[in-house]
Structure formats: structure tokens, C-alpha cells
Amino acid sequence: MKLLEDRIRNDSEVLPGNVLKINSFLNHQVDPELMMAVGTEFAHLFKDAGITKVLTCEASGIAPGVMTAYELHVPMVFARKKKPSTLNDEVYWADVYSYTKKTTNQICVEQKFLNPNDRLLIIDDFLANGEAVKGMINIAHQAYAEIAGVGVVVAKSFQGGSTWIKKHGYKLEALANIASLADNQVHFVGEN
Ligand code: 5GP
């Protein structure tokens, strides 16, 4: 998606450890027009997939997730990283190792929001090693929901997540595919 790639070129920072900082339009401040364009693109890519619900993870999945759900006219559910006191015990849990924080956290979704009739579109901001997506797939399996596909705003294709998702037979759409962050530069897949 050219609009997104251009924004990444002009408005991002490469941090040590192959981390891309895009705090000015997605991970801290959010650009709603760009997020709407992201949602429109995901909705177009999955329009024939029979999606009943978007599943994402707080916090940074919410902006692209809700825009995608809006365009598909379905609800969005976001997995929570801490169980709030307002949630009862009926939740699905999964472990997720955080690439950026180097810690394992649990995510949870209240059981009543996922069911076996659901065809889920999993959305996230970044795909690195795939741990967050694997956690959401785990939760979908616990609910016996079908997974129609995975959409990520940015995939760092040089890390293992993209390969894992495709190898396990899930449709994957990434709106920006990064081949490398060598020399503190963003190199997109297919770029010279
Ligand atoms: P994974 O679980 O695929 O290893 O990593 C994905 C999660 O880690 C994303 O949800 C995102 O929050 C965070 N993440 C991974 N790589 C990056 C990165 O380069 N930049 C930012 N901002 N977040 C990242």
C-alpha cells in the first residue's frame, strides 16, 4: 500500500534490535485518515471471505482493527493484556511472548464474544516472529471459531512470523512488507 509505505519512509525511525518506531501515526499518536485507508484496504482484500468478526490485540491493533471492522460492517473484539475486574471467569487465555518487551504476557478474550459460528479476521499492527498472531489463533481455536485470514499493517518479512503463518495455511495480507532494516534504513520487499 503506497500511502503507507510513503508514510513509513518519511515518518519512522529504526531502533536497535530491528524495531521500527512509527509512534507518530500508529503506535502512540494515530492518524485516523491513514487508519481508515488501512481499514478500507483490509476490507477490500477480505471482502469475499465471509468475515463475521475482527479479532485484534490491545493497544496498537485497535485502530486498524476497528477501521477494518467498520468497513466490513462487523464487530471488532480486542484481546486484553490484563484481565479487568469487570470480566468474569469465562475467558480464553493465551501466552504471548513480546518481541519488543522481551517478556511473556497473557492475553484474554471473554468467551461470550467468540463462538463456533465466527469466521475471524485477525488484525495486528506489526508482524515480527508471529507470537501475538499465534496467541490470537490459539484463542480462536479454543472458541472453535474459524480463521479466515490474518492482516497486518507492517510485516517484517525477515523475521519468522510471515513464514509461519503461510506454512500453517492461513491467508496473510501485509500492507507494508519490510525486507530489512539494515543500516538504519527501511528496505521494502521488491525494492531495489
Ligand atoms: P510478534 O508477536 O509477531 O513477534 O511481534 C508483534 C508484536 O510486537 C506487535 O503486536 C507489536 O506490538 C510488537 N512489535 C514487533 N516488532 C515491532 C516493531 O518493529 N515496531 C513496533 N512498534 N512494534 C513491534
Automatic annotation (TrEMBL):
Pathway(s) per entry: Purine metabolism; XMP biosynthesis via salvage pathway; XMP from xanthine: step 1/1
Record GO terms (molecular function): xanthine phosphoribosyltransferase activity
This protein's record includes keyword GTP-binding: no
Catalytic activity: XMP + diphosphate = xanthine + 5-phospho-alpha-D-ribose 1-diphosphate
One biological process term in Gene Ontology: purine ribonucleoside salvage
Enzyme class: transferase
Keywords: Cytoplasm, Glycosyltransferase, Purine salvage, Transferase
EC number: 2.4.2.22
One Pfam family, short name: Pribosyltran
Signal peptide region: none
Subcellular location: Cytoplasm
Chief location of this protein within or outside the cell: cytoplasm
Function: Converts the preformed base xanthine, a product of nucleic acid breakdown, to xanthosine 5'-monophosphate (XMP), so it can be reused for RNA or DNA synthesis.
Self-association and partners: Homodimer.
Record protein name field: Xanthine phosphoribosyltransferase
Residues engaged in binding 5-phospho-alpha-D-ribose 1-diphosphate: 128-132
Start and end residues of each Phosphoribosyltransferase domain: 35-157
A GO cellular component entry from the record: cytoplasm
NCBIfam families according to UniProt: PRK09219.1, XPRTase
Source taxon at top rank: Bacteria
Family named by the database record: Belongs to the purine/pyrimidine phosphoribosyltransferase family. Xpt subfamily.
Residues that bind xanthine: 20, 27, 156
Species name: Lactobacillus bombicola
